[in-house]
Amino acid sequence: MKTLFSQITDIPKNYLENKLKDFLKEDMHHLDLSKKYIPKKEKSFYAHLVAEEDLIFVGQPIIQELFKKADINFLFQDGEECRKGAIICSINGHFKELLSKERVLLNLIQRLSGIASLTNQYVKHINKKNIKILDTRKTTPGIRLFEKYAVKMGGGHNHRLNLYEGIMIKDNHFVTINSINETLKTIKKKNPEKKIEIEVDRFDQIVKLRKETNAKENYISSRIAQLMDDMNKAHDQHDKNWYNRLIQELDWVRQVEKRPDHNCYMEKAGW
User: Fold this and answer.
1) How many CB atoms lie within 10 A of CB 48?
2) For residue 174, what are the domain limits?
3) Continuous segment of H or E residues that includes residue 72
4) pLDDT by residue (tens digit) across 52-83?
5) In the chain, how many domains are there?
6) Is there a contact between 68 and 114 (Cβ–Cβ < 8 Å)?
7) Residue 71 and residue 88: Cα distance in Å, rounded?
8) Would the pTM count as exceeding 0.70?
């Protein structure tokens, strides 16, 4: 499937440096008081990052940036699956530096690995080449690139990075739009290079947005055929029921297309 938006496959160095400086400053303020009263240790210490559950690891560039002077041995790379109890990496560095930076390190790695792990669960459950798991702009303020990078490492794909990267018309916009067709013409004329998406939450909305009857019929028929094929290949009864419900909804859309005064609504399945 075609990728519509830019994909975050790494974290830009300047962005990483500046963010980590801010995070360390926030945590230590002027001074790490606990560290101040720990006896000086001349020799280096080893710190091991251990997975407390099965997960997809994300955080390699963060560790490398935080401990530039340390000796780091990675046993797993970003995006790789780690089993519970596995040592992800070992850091041989100054004792006080390890203590001062561990919380920032763990907070970020736990957050990003959690996002990647959950994304990976969705990707594995779908397990179809023609379906992509996409993220949104509903990210934690200040660490959007980190979180979108984590989605990529989990096998997902990035939707638009910001409001400028693409145009999405959704329910809030429809309140003030009189004609979607005229709106689309204006957008395409003034922003021919921008990708345009229209968000819907019911199948009948898709039908209304498609102008030509033949195009609607061909689209619905092809989708029904694809869903029937997927349903026949499914092994789990829950999945079969889900496919069957989608087929029924599309068939209803096809029927109500002949009766434009009626609406077709999606209902939550009670399986």
Assistant:
1) 11
2) 163-199
3) strand 71-74
4) 999 999 999 999 999 999 999 999 999 999 99
5) 3
6) no
7) 14
8) yes
